[in-house]
Specification:
The chain is built from six helices and six strands. It is of the alpha/beta class. Helix 3 crosses helix 6.
Length: about 170
């Protein structure tokens, strides 16, 4: 999007090279492995279709939920939410700010939600040196102003309260 600074261009080039190298070894690695773990049935089906892997060789192991993620009382939720500048209602994204997470589309969806009268803000927890700045620019371009809050890194201890107080998790 637009003209990138030299450090951003370098970051994108390194990232492309890294994933290209992974792709070069993926088929061989999957073929040689005795067992392949996929994070969903869709990924399993993609591996079977793309690489001809025998379906019985692929096991689906879903992402787990961290210990400590639990419902938190309203008082604690209020304290933690206030520390991040959040008021209900808000939608919460927690994860890496990376291109493969398709956060540009999340911002566009949030813009449509707001245009249709939605009152909630979008809270994005996670950090990235390059892509985070691009997401901020995209939010500004979409006119989202203070309806998107970039929280940066959020310690694990704060997550239960943020999840509990959120209208939903995206």
């Amino acid at each position: 999007p637009g003209e990138l600074a030299p450090d951003a261009r370098r970051w994108w080039r390194t990232r492309r090279e890294f994933f290209a190298e992974i792709a070069d070894y993926m088929e061989e690695s999957v073929r040689m492995a005795r067992l392949v773990i996929a994070v969903s049935r869709t990924v399993r089906d993609d591996l079977v279709a793309a690489f001809g892997v025998a379906p019985e060789k692929v096991r689906v192991v879903y992402h787990g939920v961290r210990d400590g993620l639990r419902r938190v009382d309203a008082g604690a939720c209020g304290v933690v939410s206030a520390a991040y500048g959040l008021r209900a209602p808000y939608w919460l994204y927690v994860g890496s700010l990376d291109t493969n997470k398709n956060l540009h589309t999340l911002l566009e969806g949030h813009a449509r939600y707001r245009q249709r009268g939605g009152k909630g803000v979008l809270a994005i927890a996670g950090r990235s040196m390059v892509y985070g700045g691009m997401l901020r620019q995209h939010a500004t371009k979409l006119g989202l102003g203070d309806t998107v809050l970039f929280l940066g890194y959020v310690p694990d201890a704060d997550l239960p309260a943020l999840y509990s107080a959120a209208a939903g998790v995206v």
